[in-house]
Amino acid sequence: MALGFFSVRACYTQIKPQYRKTRRAILIGGAIYLSSAAAVHLMIGSFADWTSTLSPLLGREETAALITEKCARLMPAVLSMIMLLFIQ
């Protein structure tokens, strides 16, 4: 995440100050990119944690069903963020 921040910042600072609309578009696009990457990273990490924590308690099948349901609820939000990346 830090490398992504610095790469967006480097792209932002390389554009001349007189092109402030382009600079702002790069900064906003980079913020959207980094926030969606953080959300996906957090989602995948939480799924892995739930699997290791809940599997001994609930059993393998119930844990898989729970994670599948959670993923189905979160996917529309993730897909909308991915679509924003392609629209830019």
What does this structure look like?
- It is a single chain.
- The protein is mostly helical.
- It contains 3 helices and no strands.
Quick rundown:
The chain is 91% helix and 0% strand. It is an all-alpha fold.
| Total helical segments | 3
Extract low-pLDDT stretches. Answer: none
Shape: elongated
Fraction of residues in helices?
over 70%
Distance between the first and last residues' Cα? 20 Å
The whole-angstrom Rg is: 18 Å
Query: What about the largest sheet?
Result: none
Secondary structural class = mainly alpha
* Number of strand elements: 0
What value does the average pLDDT take? 82
Helices and strands, in order, run as HHH
Task: Tell me the β content.
Answer: under 5%
Topology of helices and strands:
Layout: H1 2-14, H2 20-58, H3 60-87
Helix pairs in contact: 1-2, 2-3
Keywords:
88 residues
